[in-house]
Amino acid sequence: MRYALHWGEARITNMRDVSRDIREFTIVPEHGARPYAPGSHLNVGVIVDGQPDHRSYSLVGAGDGACYRIAVRRHDDSRGGSRYMWSLGEGARLSVTEPHNLFEMEFGRPEYLLLAGGIGITPLIAMAAALARSQANWRMIYAAKSRADAAFCDELTALYGDRIETRFSDEGRRLDLPAEIANLADGAQLYLCGPLRLLDAARSAWGSSGRPLADLRFETFASGGLYAPEVFRVKIPRLGIDLAVPTDRSLLDVLEGAGVEVMADCRRGECGLCALDVVAVEGEIDHRDVFLSDHEKQNNEKICACVSRAVGGAITVETAYRP
Ligand SMILES: Cc1cc2nc3c(=O)[nH]c(=O)nc-3n(C[C@H](O)[C@H](O)[C@H](O)COP(=O)(O)OP(=O)(O)OC[C@H]3O[C@@H](n4cnc5c(N)ncnc54)[C@H](O)[C@@H]3O)c2cc1C
């Protein structure tokens, strides 16, 4: 999961709004753009609360060797990484890494289904291009709240015609995941990028279909849970800790800020390193990670401190940290 990040300077050369809250940025790195495989992302330096930080953005399209394209959805209820990106103008300088890929494709399968939920379309655009180039048997289903929210939809339809199917909530067309999965050829793969609810539904339908779990490939953007973030208290009685976790900070941020060392790596709910033992919950846990199993989430014995939150009260946890 951990890899060395090599940062370099870059410049935004073009920007365009591709939906009402998604903006595409064309970025030219000083030392040239590298080729990359579909599913790759860039890490981009941002300023959050006056402090340097970084956010990851999937590379849009196949790349032309001269520049990178990313598309950023503006989150108003967030710590501020996307708002920072939206504050930049053409000509702005920023730091970026080389492309990295944690969402790799495998070629040569009899059929592929690409499933995008909202901003999750970004890594799938390069995948569609690669599948089209290799003359694979593929389809994409693009689910979004409405057509106006579905960035790049018209461009994809113009390129690939009826391989692109849409499911817009405001048009009332339901996504029937068990049926979509049942109709796939044996040996098919599903590539999914979208919100946690969509991933949970796909994992459950894929699991029930008896297909190999490794053939459901996904990436999440750690973007939200079942509930809107709300303030809750975190308690560690052994350390005398009783703190409020504000809406714009994670449980991990608050514990680290109080001097509690918590092992952490990916910070987006994938690696499980920051999972803490839950001693008591007043209210509910909004599990936002993709590391714990459904069973573990139901039992509420662990919480991934980087992304998951409590709603409606407080949580008492225990850590391995000994001051
Ligand atoms: C590999 C990868 C690729 C990505 N690609 C894209 C992409 O192509 N386009 C794109 O727009 N984004 C992408 N992202 C997400 C992106 O990196 C940022 O997370 C996103 O821009 C939001 O950053 P933020 O600081 O504005 O919001 P964050 O503060 O990170 O908040 C994001 C969401 O989490 C919730 N949230 C807010 N505060 C908290 C909190 N304290 N604790 C828990 N949850 C909270 C909010 O409800 C919000 O919906 C990608 C992420 C990864 C890991």
Record keyword descriptors for this entry.
about 325 residues; alpha/beta; Elongation Factor Tu (Ef-tu), domain 3; Rossmann fold; Ubiquitin-like (UB roll); five-stranded parallel sheet; five-stranded mixed sheet; about 20% helix; about 35% strand; globular; binds flavin-adenine dinucleotide
Can you tell me about this structure?
This protein has helices at residues 81-87, 121-133, 153-160, 177-182, 196-209, 251-257, 294-299; strands spanning 7-19, 22-29, 40-48, 51-58, 68-73, 93-97, 100-101, 112-117, 138-144, 164-168, 189-193, 216-219, 232-236, 241-245, 275-286, 302-304, 309-318. With 323 residues, it is α/β, with parallel strands linked by helices. The protein has 3 domains: 7-101, Elongation Factor Tu (Ef-tu), domain 3 (Beta Barrel); 112-219, Nucleotide-binding domain of ferredoxin-NADP reductase (FNR) module (Rossmann fold); 232-318, Beta-grasp domain (Ubiquitin-like (UB roll), Roll), CATH 3.10.20. A 5-stranded parallel beta sheet has the order 10-9-8-11-12, with helices on both faces. It has a 5-stranded mixed beta sheet with strand order 14-13-17-15-16. Strands 5-2-1-6 form a 4-stranded antiparallel beta sheet. Strand 8 (112-117), helix 2 and strand 9 (138-144) form a beta-alpha-beta unit. It is globular and about 60 Å long. The two termini are 28 Å apart. The site of flavin-adenine dinucleotide (FAD) has 31 residues, from strand 4, strand 5 and helix 1. Flavin-adenine dinucleotide binds next to strand 4, strand 5 and helix 1.
